Amino acid sequence: AVATPFSAHHWRQMDAAIRQLHRVLKPGGRAVFADTIAPADPLCDTWLQSIDLLRDVSHVRNASLGEWISRLDAAGFALENIVTARLPLVFDAWIARTQPPAAHVAPIRSLQATASAEIKTHFALADDGSFTIDTAVLLATKR
Q1: Please, what is the Cα angle at 93 between 89 and 99, to 5 degrees?
Q2: pLDDT at 133
Q3: At what angle do helices 91-98 and 42-55 cross, to 10 degrees?
Q4: Alpha-carbon distance values, 113 to 107, 125, 143 (Å)
Q5: What is the pLDDT of residues 81-120, one digit of tens each?
Q6: What pLDDT score was predicted for residue 134?
Q7: pTM over 0.70
Q8: Closest CA to 119 of 107, 106, 132, 128
Q9: DSSP secondary structure, 89-120, as one string
Q10: Where are the beta strands (DSSP E) in the chain?
Q11: Residues 6 or more apart from 102 whose CB is under 8 A from it?
């Protein structure tokens, strides 16, 4: 079995990493992929990628659920189950985990302050900067 908990959005070569995980499994081996996922809507996706990169320079990209499904299939995995959830993030704790410079926090706050109604609704954006993101756990088997 292989598992990757909430790290894939930092992978520079996601397809290669998924293929490598597939390679090391025996036939019928199981894999669990858990990560934050990007919204399907391009506006919400761009907003999320922007604040994530400002907060953590090691961020590469949150893949959408559709991207995950396609990538796992292309690598030779049979998808067995998907569990999605909404993850509330308290702004101060979210920022404290990576301790970005103030020069990065200010643009995050600006993006939040000027967010469209669609962004505010999708991310349940609160006045204190706290928000909610989508997550997925994908269970797959090596074909």
Answers
A1: 120
A2: 98
A3: 50
A4: 10, 10, 47
A5: 999 999 999 999 999 999 999 999 999 999 999 999 999 9
A6: 98
A7: yes
A8: 132
A9: E-HHHHHHHH---HHHHHHHHHHHHT--HHHH
A10: 2-5, 30-37, 77-89, 131-142
A11: none
Residue 10's φ and ψ, nearest 5 degrees, are -105, -5
Positions of the chain with pLDDT lower than 70, given as ranges: none
Q: Name the residue type at position 115.
A: A
C-alpha angle 125-129-135 in degrees, rounded to nearest 5: 55
* Residue 77 β-bridge partners: 142
Q: Which residues contact 120 (CB under 8 A, 6 or more apart)?
A: none
Residue matched to tokens 């995995």: 77
Question: Which tokens go with 14?
Answer: 């996601």
Q: What is the pLDDT of residue 98?
A: 96
Distance in angstroms (rounded) separating the CA atoms of residues 80 and 56: 32
